[in-house]
TrEMBL record:
PANTHER family: NAD(P)-BINDING DOMAIN-CONTAINING PROTEIN-RELATED, PROTEIN YEEZ. Transmembrane segments: none annotated. Residues 3-73 form the NAD-dependent epimerase/dehydratase domain. Gene3D superfamilies: NAD(P)-binding Rossmann-like Domain. It comes from Cryptosporangium japonicum. This is SDR family oxidoreductase. Residues 113-134 are annotated as: Disordered. Coiled coil: none annotated. It comes from the Bacteria. It holds the Pfam family Epimerase.
Length: 293
């Protein structure tokens, strides 16, 4: 299969590109800069120059592919307006990719976060949030899944709060960055809220399995650790960075504050049983041992 991917040079995307190529697929990757294009070529894939906002480039990439994997996101969490802009840009890109695939029966795999449910781990059957800081993303993903009725084998991989590799990535990575900047390894509230996690190399395997096998309109959970307490994450970071571990105001985390404070464990039981996916790489708390001052 010839696969067009957005976000192919990021922590997750680079792992997905390598996983696809190991299993005989060729990859065309969107590259927003010359440096990204060189990274794509070094990984053995072919670059297509353009940003996520370059809708013509997205159409061209999807038109020449047997399948599409969308991973790119602006990742600007500096304030509510920046986050809303990133969500809007991604939503427009997702819609354009989907329209190009209508009637083709080609696979289209997009991404979201795992939802949170009061009192229990969320499952693949639970709906995505349609309100709040990332509600727009949930609506865009639902629109992609709705393309199943228009001849697209659309599917969504729901990623947990932290996708990690060598101690980097996800919300735990943001905690690390904030700890270095503020001199405190912090957590919101009492820290007993739980975050799910997965190693990037395990997530990459699931993206491939979904691209190859998932039925149209389906959602899957890339969850290895059902829920690590944030206070435990902060404790490892505090020890590795030689910083005090303390509760900090929710506002420390800007527009993501409500999400950082929420208890949001998640299950992947259905995904494992149905697709035969089984994570094999280090857990988040073990992987954070790679963090250093």
């Amino acid at each position: 299969m010839h696969v067009f991917i957005t976000g192919g040079t990021g922590l997750i995307g680079s792992a997905v590109v390598a996983e696809l190529q190991r299993h005989g697929h060729s990859v065309l990757a969107l590259a927003r800069s010359e440096a990204s294009a060189r990274a794509v070529e070094a990984a053995g894939a072919k670059p297509l120059r353009g940003a996520l906002t370059d809708l013509d480039a997205l159409r061209a990439g999807a038109a020449q592919a047997d399948g599409v994997v969308h991973l790119a996101f602006g990742n600007d969490f500096s304030g509510p307006d920046a986050l809303a802009r990133a969500v809007a840009e991604e939503s427009a890109a997702m819609a354009v990719l989907g329209e190009e695939l209508v009637g083709s029966d080609r696979p289209y795999v997009t991404v979201s976060g795992t939802p949170w449910v009061s009192g229990r781990p969320s499952t693949e059957e639970d709906p995505l949030p349609l309100d709040g800081p990332v509600g727009g993303r949930g609506r865009a993903v639902n629109a992609v899944l709705g393309l199943a009725a228009r001849g697209v084998r659309s599917a969504s991989v729901r990623l947990p709060r932290t996708v990690h590799n060598q101690g980097k990535g996800g919300f735990a990575g943001l905690l690390t960055d904030i700890a270095r900047r503020t001199g405190v390894s912090g957590y919101a509230g009492d820290g007993t809220q739980r975050w799910p996690a997965v190693h990037a190399l395990d997530a990459a395997v699931l993206f491939r399995l979904v691209l190859e096998n998932a039925p149209a309109g389906s959602a899957w959970h890339a969850v290895a650790d059902e829920g690590d307490r944030v206070v435990d994450i902060a404790a490892v970071l505090g020890r590795r960075l030689n910083l005090p571990v303390e509760s900090v105001p929710e506002e420390t985390y800007g527009p993501l504050g409500p999400i950082f404070a929420a208890d949001q464990p998640s299950s992947s039981a259905h995904t494992r049983a149905t697709l035969g996916w089984e994570p094999t790489h280090p857990s988040l708390l073990d992987d954070l041992e790679h963090v250093s001052e």
